[in-house]
Design goal:
2 copies of one chain form a homodimer.
Chain A: H1 12-22, E1 26-28, E2 35-37, H2 39-58, E3 62-63, E4 69-71, H3 72-76, H4 79-85, E5 91-94, E6 97-99, E7 107-109, E8 114-121, H5 126-136, E9 145-154, E10 168-178, H6 181-201, E11 208-211, E12 223-230, E13 236-246, H7 248-252, E14 256-258, E15 264-266, E16 268-275, H8 277-286, E17 303-308, H9 311-331, E18 336-338, H10 346-355, E19 360-365, H11 366-371, E20 373-378, E21 384-388, H12 392-417, E22 419-421, H13 425-434, E23 438-442, H14 447-457, E24 460-465, E25 473-474, E26 481-482, E27 485-489
Parallel strand pairs in A: 3-9, 17-18, 17-19, 22-23
Antiparallel strand pairs in A: 1-2, 4-8, 5-8, 6-7, 9-10, 10-16, 11-12, 11-24, 12-13, 13-16, 14-15, 19-20, 20-21, 23-27, 24-27, 25-26
Helix pairs in contact in A: 2-6, 9-12
């Protein structure tokens, strides 16, 4: 089983694809740039989505649903936004097909069904939502409006990769409206904290919080905050963004409210999103050459039990004991599968569940029953132990917590070891090539310099970390004065 | 508040729109035929979706996600299917906009971004999914494949109505693959039973299960089973369908499996779906001229408590007692809101929560505290009672069950009183015009007759009920011999 997986050393990119495809997370589709999220991958997404959804609701947000289509004229209303999205969008121009008179059995666009105004399949929903908010907001009493949407979006990417960059992807987009700039900024930062909490404490992936430079800002935002994670190949991955939109969209869509002071004011906005891209980050953060390694708190399946037996008599005894163990595990809300399928041998099953990243595997044999022991293997370290069956559920519960903790610690140690302060351009290029990771360096604050560094090295400024220490220095590239270091990396 | 609602008698259709809009369920959007599902409506949908999802999982199904776009050539592969959907679909023809050189600030379709093959925004996913199943199914060991998808779909309807018929809607679509026709039929019927169970026991809406005539069959199906509900205006509403697709799609997409007997066989298919249309059915089934009436089991909010007080001192005492009651209700998993907002008077609040269909409203005043009583009003019958605060949570729990039961009984009594056996054409037209509801009548089994009846009366055959008694008779319209009665109605 595991030998089908390309090793990281051989070809990191192929290793990733192997994990996604053979681990049962997703599949290519016949539709250009779109993927199929397979049941195992979707179960993982459901766990992630449900937890994020709980966190959004706990912070006072409600869900709603807005139309898939954005009229062309809406996109035009916010100039920066239009520039950012017009070049990569699916455009609906007609609403009917008809039989092709020249080719029997084929269909063609019915030219008589041409739309007066084209519809864009939403790449994001600011425009549609702010056009709606105009009707929903009249007075300060209608604020804040704290709404989230779970939806599919489409961005016409030229080069796609499963989960990391696909034409269609699933995401959530929060869109909030506030009476003051201060309140909107607080919301922007609060949701960044929610993302950090989720990604670190559920996905076991430590992140760096920061703010984007103008080059990397969301089209239409005043400020884009982000969480940046580090992958095992030393590349960074943006795991979530939270935007302070200022009054850009309220002005574009004329959304005003009557203040307590009885004045008409434009509304302040935020938006924030995470997507199925997080699954790509999860895969690359923890997995190894045997397959996926999933954090117990979001794994679709936490424990698998494989019986090892000869003959029906042994099997019956093992079945009975397994049923007891399973019921104890379930009582502790641990998800567990008993795989007594007869079409594969235990060794094959072990490899299969390793590939799928199931955190804990247990093997139960006839001899174990006599000694009242069960073999427990943890996926993260591959350690195996014989454990007493008495109190096994409590043991497994603690083990799952330990695995979760080990994963985040391991990822944090890796991340921390890959933030390299660098003070000259030669070293910058050398670290980037030989070690990778984040490079902490001075920058002169201009887009020109950032562009040139990107051109020469592919590295971009991932973020200016929040609470960044202020320190005098010289830009790594231009030599001009700088007040603080920023984090560079090559990114997904 | 309630006087804003048009009464059913005045204008049933406007009454429905008033409830949806003013009850906070949905809003029109600027995008043709698309609606915005507002937070209260979406919370209702979440409750319905989550329960259906549990029922799908309990019957062995898993979720997955397939692409939004259907290549034109996929649609062409199953002829009946293509005919059914080609005339009402959103067609993506280009993937880029560019600045319009003639109109400053405007965008236009970039003609250089024309797609070689058009993409249809999915009206349903049989084609995309069966094209994928070809790669997933090799042997009988891969079967059955029991997959569901929650998704948005688009059908370009010319006349739309909130929830009932919108260009975009949310739904679930199950797509299963089986080794034998028998097994696929069992699945088709099983999911029909799941729908019946959900609609009757959660939405409190009794349905009639049946099979569609050829005229009303899903495009591409061998048999379409359905559940049909009756609305208060005597019109029927199809609340869910489950299709036996035979081998139509496996043949169109060449999906074969190696049988136990080592032979290559085409796979057998089902598909089944319910949508946000169910919300329309829910609104029309139970509501009254004061507003929505929601069944407790799916209501976003089950109980509201309104304090009635003069001065801060009274309020403090009431707040304290309310907090106790709320904590008792929450311990019984009852959702509750305490509305002590100061911008509206109690009477206004009462009307507002009536409009929103909250099943139980409680009013807590200073005098009530002294007598240890609380006023409890049920939304369905509008009865009010003074109830002892001791044990109030248990009382409310039972009351919610009673309301749920009352709603389904009321709807069933109405439905049963509106199934009218009719034996001649004059009576048919008379009952249809004067009473409405289902008409049980003989039919000669031909599409021609069905078409003519529809033309004259707008009534269609809603279904041939399952387990229909066999009985000799004459077709109501043509006078030709018939073996069983079928159910006619004018439908949404």
């Amino acid at each position: 089983m595991s030998k089908e997986i390309t090793s990281r050393e051989t070809d990191y990119s192929q290793w990733y694809n192997d994990l996604v495809l053979k681990g049962g997370l997703a599949d290519y589709s016949a539709v250009r740039g779109c993927m199929v999220i397979k049941p195992y991958g979707f179960a993982l997404w459901e766990n992630m989505r449900d937890q994020l959804d709980r966190m959004f609701k706990e912070t006072g947000h409600v869900n709603a649903y807005f139309p898939l289509f954005v009229p062309r004229s809406f996109l035009e209303k916010e100039e920066g936004h239009a520039e950012g999205f017009a070049k990569e969008c699916a455009v609906v121009t007609h609403y009917r097909l008809k039989a092709n008179p020249d080719k029997k059995g084929e269909l063609m666009v019915d030219p008589e069904s041409k739309l007066e105004e084209e519809l864009i399949v939403r790449p994001t929903s600011e425009t549609v939502i702010w056009n709606t908010y105009r009707d929903w907001i009249q007075s300060y009493r209608d604020l804040p409006l704290l709404i989230n949407q779970w939806a599919n979006v489409v961005r016409w990417e030229m080069r796609t990769r499963l989960f990391l960059r696909t034409t269609e992807f699933l995401w959530q987009e929060g869109h909030t409206a506030h009476a003051t700039a201060e309140e909107a900024v607080v919301e922007t930062r609060k949701m960044l904290d929610v993302y950090e909490d989720f990604v670190e404490n559920w996905m076991a992936l430590p992140v760096i919080k920061g703010v984007k430079t103008a080059n990397e800002r969301f089209a239409g935002a005043v400020d884009t905050y982000c969480i940046e994670a580090l992958m095992q190949d030393g590349k960074a991955l943006q795991a979530g963004t939270s935007h302070f939109l200022g009054q850009n969209f309220s002005k574009a869509f004329d959304v005003k409210y009557l203040s307590r002071e009885n004045k008409q004011e434009y509304v302040w906005a935020t938006s924030w999103g995470t997507s199925t891209r997080l699954i790509g980050a999860l895969v690359m953060a923890h997995s190894d050459d045997e397959g996926l390694v999933l954090p117990p708190k979001i794994a679709p399946l936490q424990v698998v039990i494989v019986p090892i037996f000869k003959g029906e008599e042994q099997k019956a005894l093992i079945d009975q004991k397994a049923a007891e163990i399973i019921s104890e595990l379930k009582a502790l809300h641990i998800s567990v599968k008993y795989d007594d399928s007869d079409n594969n041998r235990p060794g094959w099953k072990f490899a299969a569940y390793e590939l799928k990243g199931v955190p804990v595997r247990m093997a139960l044999g006839a001899r174990d029953l006599q000694s009242n022991l069960i073999e427990v293997a943890r996926r993260d370290t591959k350690e195996k132990l014989s454990v007493s069956i008495d109190g096994i559920a409590g043991y497994v519960k603690q083990l799952l917590d330990e695995i979760q903790e080990n994963l985040v610690n391991r990822a944090r140690a890796y991340r921390d070891a890959h933030i390299t302060p660098v003070d000259n351009w030669e070293e910058f290029k050398q670290v980037l090539n030989e070690k990778g990771g984040f490079i902490s360096a001075h920058w002169d604050g201009t887009s020109e310099t950032e562009d040139k560094i990107k051109e020469e090295t592919k590295a971009t400024i991932r973020c200016i970390p929040l609470d960044n220490p202020q320190e005098e220095g010289l830009c790594i590239f231009s030599g001009k004065p700088s007040r603080e270091r920023v984090l560079f990396a090559v990114a997904y």
